[in-house]
Amino acid sequence: MMETSLQYLLFPCLLLCCQTNEVLPAGLTVSPSRSQFFKGDSVSLSCEEDNSSAGWTVWRNTTRGTRTQCDEWGEAAGSTCNISSIREHEGGFYWCESREGAASSSIQLTVTGGSVILQSPVLPVMEGDDVTLSCHTKTAPSNLEAAFYKDGSIIRTEPAGHMTLHHVTSSDEGLYRCSISAHGESPSSSISVSVKPSTTAPTTLLSPSPSSHLSPPYLLLSLPFVIVVVLLVLVLMVRRCVQRKSEGDPEGGEDNNTYSDINISHHQRQKNKVTKGLKTRGSRKDSATEVNDDKKCSLEDPDYQSLNPASMDQNQMYMKLKAGKKKPRFRH
């Protein structure tokens, strides 16, 4: 019973261990929400975290350096990193990382010294959603006529500078750019489409950072998991050994039972002897009484009186004696 109870406790203990040590993922958000910026724009990057104790910070890879933290190129304020005036060489990949080494998905920011940018989603879009692309200039209004391109081929020209892709699918993935007449064209930005997660398929919450030497979160959970499993297995083994030893050593119990049985049998035999002796004495008294009664009866019997000399007269006694004499035998 104890072993079954420990087995039932095994799963909740492991679940509690994983929940206690689990580092919930953080998502990197960019303000303003776009992937392209003009040189000199101010940018704010924040790690939206569910577990404030994880200590999420913003990291990046650029052409000027790899795996550099916010303190080296921006102003850190908790899990937020602010860039007051972004420069062209600061274009690259940005992501959030915790003290334990867990990382969020990375996003790519592009910084241009030109006068036209394409406003496109920073993160992958969900399959079936509508996506709007906008073409902006640095100084002119944003409602100028613009032409939109995908993978180098023109899609169409929009008079207001906005193009909407309806119910996107994986076929809409690619590199997009735009151009405005007399102003120039924007850099290219990638658009990715994610498949909607099913109700049964597990979703990936964490993704590794661009650097290859980061430890995935499951390695952080493996040590406490192994410790708990080993401890519970040892407890089960000790419990089973004790139980087997107690079940496999019946000699003491048999000796105690045998000794008790011997004591009970001895007392029972003593009691039976006493009872038998009392019965024997009683039977002897009854036998003596019967003998006396028989004697009394035999004295009153006529046959007994016939043999009793006291009850015979002299003539009868003489005749019996005479009859009892044998005649002598003579040899011729």
Describe the structure using short key phrases.
single chain, alpha+beta, five-stranded mixed beta sheet, five-stranded antiparallel beta sheet, 19 strands, elongated
Written overview of the protein:
Helices cover 37% and strands 25% of the residues. It is of the alpha+beta class and 332 residues long.
Q: Topology of this protein?
A:
Blueprint: H1 2-21, E1 27-31, E2 36-38, E3 43-48, E4 57-62, E5 68-69, H2 70-73, E6 75-77, E7 80-83, E8 92-97, E9 107-112, E10 116-119, E11 125-126, E12 131-137, E13 146-150, E14 153-158, E15 162-165, E16 174-180, E17 184-185, E18 189-191, E19 193-194, H3 217-247, H4 251-300, H5 302-307, H6 314-324
Parallel strand pairs: 2-9, 11-19
Antiparallel strand pairs: 1-3, 3-7, 4-5, 4-8, 6-7, 8-9, 10-12, 12-15, 13-14, 13-16, 16-17, 16-18
Helix pairs in contact: 1-3
List the total number of helices: 6
Largest sheet: 5 strands, mixed
> Low-confidence runs (pLDDT<50, min 5 residues)?
16-23, 201-220, 252-256, 295-299
Task: Note the overall shape.
Answer: elongated
The strand line-up of the biggest sheet is 2-9-8-4-5
Distance between the termini: 116 Å
In short:
With 332 residues, the chain is α+β, with helices and mostly antiparallel strands. The protein is built from 6 helices and 19 strands.
